[in-house]
Amino acid sequence: MTQTAVQLYSLRDLDESLPSVIERVGETTFDGVEFANRVPDADVDEIERALDQTGLTPAGAHVGLETLETDLSETVERYSRFGCDTFVVPYLDGDHFESLEAVESTADRLSAVASDLAAHGVDLHYHNHDHEFVACGDQTAMEALLERTDDAVGFELDLGWANVGGVDPVAFLERYADRVSFVHLADAEVGAGTPTELGEGDLDLENCLDAVGRAGIEWGIYEHDQPTDPIQSLSHGAETLEQLR
User: How far apart are CA 211 and CA 192, in angstroms?
Assistant: First the structure.
């Protein structure tokens, strides 16, 4: 059964400590949280306490590629203190996908970090936006990246951004299900590339939820990049992802 989580970036505008935000998530039906950019500035002991108190599981953490290349051991140690053993590179700009040579270089960097992390018992994933689906020869740059990375590199497929990028997210998930452990269930208006509440944009949510279930995805993670009301969006996301159970 797919577990559900929320990407805490969705709640970044709450004027609360990270442990307090975790406690809010614990009041919903989410199984876990995916960390974003606040952990280095937070009290790790308090994060551990909040996770223990709520029963939430760390699904993973978004960590920049350069941080992993330059500060790997300290980063692993920090997150391991509260049981987080999966890192996700959340974003690389379009320069990394502008040509096949650029994609090959990106793939080499990701594969090298994945190898280093594996020695610490930590997995690495890459999270897409829409610009990875630019044409790259006779395929997309995202397809080229999948084919050129070591199998140790997993993928967190953002279904909403894939849709904005011009591919069928269900078909893409089915094709690469063996490389995808996590998905982001996020929605957007395709023409404008504007994030929306899940079910209010152009994502075929029903078919996506069915595909996630069929693929045996480990974590289905809710994210809204620009929620008007983060608390309402949190509740809405939890209720929507209940369909994965």
Answer: 25
Token pair belonging to 91? 């974003």
C-alpha pair distances (Å), 176 with each of 10, 81, 151, 157, 196? 26, 32, 12, 10, 26
Label the pairing between strands 32-35 and 3-7. Answer: parallel
CB 202 within 8 A of CB 190: yes
Q: Name 89's bridge partners.
A: 126
Amino acid 114: pLDDT = 98
Dist. CA 156–CA 219, nearest whole Å: 9
Q: Are strands 135-136 and 139-140 parallel, antiparallel or unpaired?
A: antiparallel
Coil, helix or strand at residue 194: strand
User: Using 50, 70 and 90 to split pLDDT, how confident is the model at 245?
Assistant: confident
Residues 58-81: b if buried by 16+ CB within 10 A, e if exposed: bbbbbbbbeebeeebeebbebbee
User: Per-residue pLDDT tens for 191-228?
Assistant: 999 999 999 999 999 999 999 999 999 999 999 999 99
Per DSSP, the chain holds a count of helices (H) and strands (E) of 10, 12
Count CA within 13 A, CB hemisphere, residue 131.
10
pLDDT in tens, 63-117: 999 999 999 999 999 999 999 999 999 999 999 999 999 999 999 999 999 999 9
CATH homologous superfamily of 3-244: Divalent-metal-dependent TIM barrel enzymes (3.20.20.150)
Residue ranges of domains in the chain: 3-244
